[in-house]
Amino acid sequence: MPALVGALHVASWGRLRTGAPASLVPWRLPHSVTASLLVVLAAFLLLCANEIFGQPPLMTPTLHPDRSLVGVWYGTGPKPVEFLIHSDGSVTGTVAEFVVAGAHIFYGRSWFGQLLHINSPYRIMGRLSGDRFAAPFECIDDTLDGSLFLQNRPMRLLLTRRKP
Fold first, then answer.
1. Does residue 22 lie within any of the structural domains?
2. Cis omega (within 30 of 0) on the bond before 61?
3. pTM for the structure as a whole
4. Are 59 and 50 in contact (CB under 8 A)?
């Protein structure tokens, strides 16, 4: 395989050294095709920026949590965490000794983010002792796997469902 790649490089170099045949005419795209390509590129860049910087992205629908998300989730680690996700999308709970206030669960990515495999599927955003926090995560069976960002410092978040 390396010999084949080397041979292709040598052949390309040889072709470039000889110059282009005189019969070749420069190839140009029609203006309408060029304009269409620029519009598609601009739309792609805007969708990417929206997916990366939108919290949540503008194209995400409103999340109405189903049975797979509603309930009490807890985890132990550097700090004990407990979230109660309600069916209306609100979230209450505690992180260590601090109380979660004004938190809601959202979709963390749109169809475009899912297509590109960027961002987490879900995001909890709210306040914790006056500071804003964000917790992007994904739901795998009976586990919420993600991170908790408090004052731009990440903390691993691995929560399991508390059985009633």
1. no
2. no
3. 0.70
4. yes
